[in-house]
Amino acid sequence: MSAYRETKLHGTHGFPYIVYLGIIPEYTGGVALHWHEEMEIIYVKKGRGTVTAASRKYPVMAGSIMPILPGELHAIDGDPGVRMEYENIIFPLSLLDNQVENDWARRNILTPLQMGTLRFPRPIYADTAMHAEVSAALDAADDACSKRPDGYSLLVRSSLFRFFFVLY
Length: 168
Fold this sequence. Notes:
Blueprint (H helix, E strand, L loop, with lengths): L17 E7 L6 E4 L4 E8 L1 E6 L2 E6 L3 E4 L5 E5 L5 E8 L12 H12 L15 H17 L4 H16 L1
Antiparallel strand pairs: 1-8, 2-7, 3-6, 3-8, 4-5, 4-7
Helix pairs in contact: 2-3
């Protein structure tokens, strides 16, 4: 299992949140099986492919949002002959943790996600009831990162809380 571990620093030490743009096949032929301690959200913007998570293959297409739990083995592959564009949103759950022992979000969301005991439907497809709210939260975080107003990290954090609120 350690052979698949990714140890790359995502984001910066001051704000460990980053969005990578992936394009299959132009930028990469796919993302090989790996895991890391951070949460990852794969947000497919165009095309279609497959996300493998916890040994299960999930078909994804434009609009699909696939949460990947911390420590979960996962990979991304495009369909043959199809261009797929997606965002990899990567951040540690500690970005949202206020370290207060009895905090509701810590007890009900962050710790269960870290332990792998909180599950929700995935992928979230564009034609589902929760998609509009979940995608709006991720799009708001993208907008904050692209404009970077003073305090943009607060907007990103609040968008991630909104994302988890909708999933919960």
